[in-house]
Amino acid sequence: MKLPLGERKDEEENKAFLKFSPKLIEALMKMQEIELEDVDIDVGDLEIHLQPGAVAAAPRVVAPPVKKIKPSTIIEVDFIPPVETYSGRIAEVQLGATKSDGGTRGKSIIIGGERSPAYYLFENPTPHPPVVTLDVFDMKVPLAKAVKMHVEEVVENPVAWAKLAVDKFGAEMITLHLVSIDPLLKDTSPLEAARTVENVLQAVDVPIVIGGCGDPQKDLKVFEKVAAVAEGERVLLSSITLDMDIEKAAQAAKKHGHVALAFTSMDLNHARELNRKLYEYLPKEQIIMDTTTAALGYGLDYAFTVMERARLAGLMGDPELQHPLSSGTTNAWAAREAWMKMAPEWGPRELRGPIWETVTALTLMLAGVDVFMMMHPAAVKTAKDVIGKLTQGGGRSKPEQISDWVTLKI
Amino acid sequence: MSEKPSVRELSPIDVYMLLPKTNCKKCGLENCMAFATKLVNREIALELCTPLLEKQYEKAYQKLWDMLKPPVKEVTIGTGDKAVKIGGKLVMYRHELAYFNPTAIAIDVTDEMPEEEVLLRLKKTEGFSYIYIGKELKLDMIAIRSTSNDPEKFRITVKKVAENTQLPLILCSLHPEVVEAGLMTAPKARPLIYAATRDNWKDMAELALMYNCPLAVFAPNDLKLLRSLTKTLTEYGVQDLVLDPGTFPNDGIADTISNLTMIRRAVFKRGDELLGFPILGVPLTAWAERADVDEVNMWNEAYLAAVLINRYVDALIMHSAEGWVLLPTTVLRQNVYTDPRKPVAVEPGLKAFGQPDENSPLMMTTNFALTYYTVASDIESSGINCYLMIVDTEGLAVDSSVAGRKLTAERVAEALKTLKAEDKVKHRKLIIPGKAARLSGEIQELSGWEVLVGPRDSSEIPKYLQEKWQ
What we know:
The structure holds 2 protein chains of 2 kinds. Chain A is an alpha/beta fold. Helix content of chain A is 35%, strand content 11%. Chain A has one domain (93-392): TIM Barrel, CATH 3.20.20. In chain A, strands 8-7-6-5-4-3-10-9 form an 8-stranded parallel beta sheet. Chain A starts with 14 loop residues before the first helix and ends in an 8-residue tail after the last helix. Chain B is α/β, with parallel strands linked by helices. Chain B is 39% helix and 16% strand. Chain B is built from 17 helices and 17 strands. Chain B has helices spanning 12-16, 32-40, 58-68, 115-127, 151-164, 176-185, 201-210, 223-236, 253-270, 294-310, 323-336, 369-382, 398-403, 409-418, 421-424, 440-447, 461-468, and strands at 74-77, 84-87, 104-110, 130-132, 135-137, 141-145, 169-172, 192-196, 215-218, 241-244, 280-281, 315-318, 349-353, 362-366, 386-391, 429-432, 450-453. In chain B, helix 6 (176-185) links the parallel strand 7 (169-172) and strand 8. Chain B starts with 11 loop residues before the first helix and ends with a helix. The model of chain B has no long low-confidence stretch (mean pLDDT 93). The chains are: A alpha/beta, B alpha/beta. At the A-B interface, helix 1, helix 8, helix 10, helix 11 and helix 12 of A face helix 4, helix 8, helix 9, helix 10 and helix 11 of B.
């Protein structure tokens, strides 16, 4: 499910763009001056195609005649922030465990706990910042070029990939996708998959997500093994689905102290049903929901609305939807506008791709997502920046900075 | 404050009681109840009930109009074919009904830009076009900023712009004499005036009344002032207002989101009429905290625009005209303003492309509209003769429907049978999408058809068929 879309292999490489994207990230990181001499930005030489619009004519607006005395000074009125209270609260879930609580992670992360819709900061501050977890794959997978260029050296080595994600891209969490266990791919055995997990757990000390291949039988076998070797680490098992043997999957999480990611396909009734089944074995604090992420332009509106509805329902008191939300934001790369070479006026895909992932992430952030599974370093960087600013809360705008934006020289 | 039921709570019965109840069918529907239902769903205009406009129904008409009036006022900018309507929002959350009037996007020019640059930006703005699910994504307006504060310079630029575009205009200056110079050059264009502030509101109100223009109200991070100004201006006689609570880039994004959310919450939960106007967002402010690298500024502007479109903003002023900035912006707008009541799905079935015969390939896709249109356009543009089977996946794309078990071997086998695929082609080969590869064995088993795994993206269909088909 979280696999990115492949790209055309026969496209020629554009060296300038290859240099460009890492520099963009550097610039975003440091806001430093960077050289751009060898970069082609396609602005000046566009062929413009004029087409008449098809906008309907506006109806005439009939304004009622106003016969009042015109005020000469501002009529002062008050504004009272429209604060509401909610009967429900989203569960707090801890990911990763340190030595003091039975694991070996350098730190653990708590998410959830919301008492208001996402970023209704006039009501309540954000209790815990959402977490961004970076994708790592256990075998070579088709990756968009804009992504591949950042991980080229490690694509066949999940341990090195995990280290790169943490050391270079500052990942606070990683997702180890055990793609190779897929019976249609390498059919890696549960034992071997568990070994990869052990190696990654030793190589990095951030909390981790374990991703399966999407085959419910095989995933379950692997989860049972992995849960045992990762005993006490409070990993997130991604994911448990309605067509899995839920009892076995939940027992694996319960017995070894992990968290279940309950995955359903854009259907709140299914989400409730799966959560209900999990409650027989797991406390609320060990369940996160994923109601499916579709890419910008490819059903993001559905994904957004299902998540927003889930969150609002949870806050209004629906006890079966009071879980933090997780998003496979990497799915943004399924949009061809993200990875495909397009006509020059649409700009280099090295920028289009990561902004596509960024917009997908920020949209779902506003629906209430707590866990973002992401891929491109620039998108990750921006998502984390915005999370930081939103978590710090209001009162930090500088009205003087924009009070004269009209005359801003650009 | 308002005690009338929210549009969500409005029932067709409430509306029906005020209609003539004669079932005259003049509106084109069978009876008044059907008309009432459509009214509540915002699928028909009240004025189509022509008897209502007669004198005897005057009171009922007024009541209905009030009842159905959107809590966020609809404001028109510009005139003629390209006029833009903003606001008119009926709900806070899109799932409660649907959002109407997609966020209008304006690109800026200034009165200190060289003429060629102004013209180039107009041309780019007007020429922007992207086809997405059979719809054309376009830009909507031009914002002219006076960076000179010189009325004469502004007049010349407004004249130049008005001569070269039909797009509605936003005239931006906090100095009334500058705005006036612009309005005198384009007196009938009904531009949006930007903006009334604490200091200039009275002069701006006079201009708005004199030229019959909508007026933006600018009160950065001060909703009390914003409300006071809308109160004052409506009392003054200016009815078409647009709110700008300030778009704060960077560290200010929390305040930006908070203000936007409070405005709409006040309107929809508290019935606050003083804030019941469309909102203007200005992602262009991303350039106020400027990085040395322009791509970083564009990037910041792009993500700010996305946040604003999601959080209720009805119009945007942007500086970046780059395709990689505006493509995600316009696609997001299209997503957010899609009617959630209508599934984005096409009819399942078996469709012929070109002139296929019994030896032509048979391919398969899902009934998610975007998937279908993408595949169809790739097939059409390459002139291939083939059959395409559209399987009912409840409107999900290939990858999501495989993961969500909406696209299953059972469904595919059943579709092959009910659509009588064996009558169309002599061979027994089905090409499935690369992203459904996992189903190939099972489909083969259940249907008895040989399954070929096609490309992961439909743009590669022509190449695939050339290499693999016969």
